[in-house]
Amino acid sequence: SAPRSQALFHGIASVMRAGDDPVLTLVSPERPYVCIGMHQDVVAEVDEAYCRGAGLPVLRRHVGGGAVYLDHNQLFFHFIYPVNKAPRRVTDLYAYFVAPVLATYQALGIAARLRPINDIHVNDRKIGGTGAAQIGDATIFVGSFMLDFDVETMARCLKVPSEKFRDKLRGTLRDYITTMRRELGAIPSREELVARFLRDVAEHLCVEPRHDDLRADETRAVDEWERQLQEPDWLYQPNRRRFTEGVKITGGVHLSEGMHKARGGLLRVRLLSQNERIVDLDISGDFTCIPASGIAALAQALSGLDLCADMPSQIAQHMTVLGLDMPGVDAEDIATALRSAYKPAD
């Protein structure tokens, strides 16, 4: 099921211990579904009415990045490592774990390369994205082999401002996303793909992959995550503030929304300001932040920030204190997003 395919790596990671062997899972969902990133707002990103009508479950994963459509034509890999056995910084994680993925694509005749921050490209077309996160004492690196891709359904799943925009999105996806079928003229067999990938994992990560079954505690954890991933509170994050346009409450008090596209992803900010200071703030988007709880902690720490002062330096200080790792997103990016939302007091 859709929840089970996500719960597998969440559950294994949640009970991983420092001395455990690393784990690699390979999954293709039996039925399609939509999955949003850890820091995204489902209401802003997904056309929920369409997904309900099409019978597409919508889930939130504990990994950053954007909303994606998943089906059997994608083979998903999840590297789950004890934190002490994986690179510490997210950018180093990408370089380390993407090496066997690129090798497999290249062995099959596809000239794939890593395009910073975390996309895999072939001749300027995207053939896959990757993501990283921490759950408990485990580091996770996820991605997929794109055998084929349903552009039409992906374009329908996303929330867009107009049908004209959706038409443009559909064309852009066709132009800038590629697949194994498109590059090779046919889809390689799953057996060939998996065998090749496991050889490359062994060579590049210096491990010996072997099939294994879940431990009893892993099975219990996967069952629990399968339940949690289907909870409305997990999907909707009810503490998240939502408003779609600037609203003046009273003199000097405004609710507003802004956004900024950083190298590491789209930042959306929802801002309650009073007399040029932050009263309440919500930050969402398709970026990566480790630890995952750090973005909410940053939003809380910025309460009281003077929106007319030198925001980047103060934001940078908070990011350092909180130990945030946000590849491709820095204090200036967050300040720019805040400026786009800020409505000066009358």
CATH class category label of the largest domain: Alpha Beta
Number of helices: 13
What's the main sheet like? 6 strands, antiparallel
**Would you list the SSEs in sequence order as H and E?**
HEEHHEEEHEEEEHHHHHHEEEEHHH
Number of strands: 13
Distance between the termini: 53 Å
**What's the number of structural domains?**
2
Q: Find the structural class using helix and strand composition.
A: alpha+beta
Percent of residues in β-strands = 15-25%
The side-by-side strand order for the widest beta sheet comes to 1-5-9-8-7-6
Which consecutive residue ranges, at least 5 long each, have pLDDT under 50?
none
Give the rounded overall mean pLDDT.
Answer: 94
What is the approximate shape?
globular
User: How is the CATH topology of the largest domain named?
Assistant: BirA Bifunctional Protein, domain 2
* Helix-residue proportion: 25-40%
CATH superfamily of the largest domain: Bira Bifunctional Protein, Domain 2
Radius of gyration: 21 Å
CATH architecture of the largest domain: 2-Layer Sandwich
